[in-house]
Amino acid sequence: MMQQKVSIIKEGHLFKRGEFIKNWRLRYFYLFSDGKFIGYKTKPELGPCSDCYNMFDVTNCSVRKMEVPKHNSFLLRCFDYTQSIDRLFRCLTQEDRDHWVEMIKSVTQLLAGAEVPIPQLNQTDKLVIGPYKMLNLLGEGTFGKVILGQNTNDGTFVAIKVMRKDFIYQNSEVDHIQSEGRILKAFNHPFLISMLEFLQTRERIYFVMNFLNGGELFYHLKLSGHFSERRTKLYAAEVILALQFLHSKNIIYRDL
């Protein structure tokens, strides 16, 4: 019987929690049609290779969504002859987490003999603007989306704000967006986001900015329930210093 060709079902960045030291490390994972689930420290330039950091098999695994200890996580439980081993992964968005879980379940069921159609890759896996590959959705705002990107030249991660030109024109926000771009590009401060590059196509404009992997303040407040006085003072001081810097440049921030 002819051997079936092994193909990549899904690939992308995941945070994996260590089994012994419980910290989270960003890895680039490939899920294959034969059940192999392989992680690399960074995305291999020439595709999957033998120099990997993690090698798992989802053939005899169960997977379920988790919201603890981190939001947008999933637990992969692998069954051995005498024991089960749990491994925890986290995504930046719920959409990406749900997609990974769906893919893993599809591969597991397919290998068990069930006729299951395997979903297609997300469109965000295929988008490229300039030297940046768009990976995952980080958030959405009034005028566009913010997407996690990676510079294909040096591997660094960036946050890319994507805005539709027609929407900007329809809402008379041209001056506002231009001002935002000039300010982000002109100033550098430890408590303010900086714009690294401005790109555009016929339909969209792109602000390429620093990627700060920490999440928004409300997420941490919801997670903690309340902040201690010491922690509150720290956050308040950072905001005040950022506003003080902007005021020294004759800029008023009107969306606090």
UniProtKB/TrEMBL annotation:
Signal peptide: none annotated. GO terms for molecular function: ATP binding; protein serine/threonine kinase activity. ATP binds at K161. It comes from the Eukaryota. Residues 7-109 form the PH domain. Pfam families: PH (PF00169), Pkinase (PF00069). The keyword Transmembrane helix does not apply. Keywords: ATP-binding, Kinase, Nucleotide-binding, Serine/threonine-protein kinase, Transferase. Residues 132-256 form the Protein kinase domain. InterPro entries: Kinase-like_dom_sf (IPR011009), PH-like_dom_sf (IPR011993), PH_domain (IPR001849), Prot_kinase_dom (IPR000719), Protein_kinase_ATP_BS (IPR017441). Belongs to the protein kinase superfamily. AGC Ser/Thr protein kinase family. RAC subfamily. This is RAC-gamma serine/threonine-protein kinase (Trinotate prediction). The lineage of its organism: Eukaryota, Metazoa, Cnidaria, Myxozoa, Myxosporea.
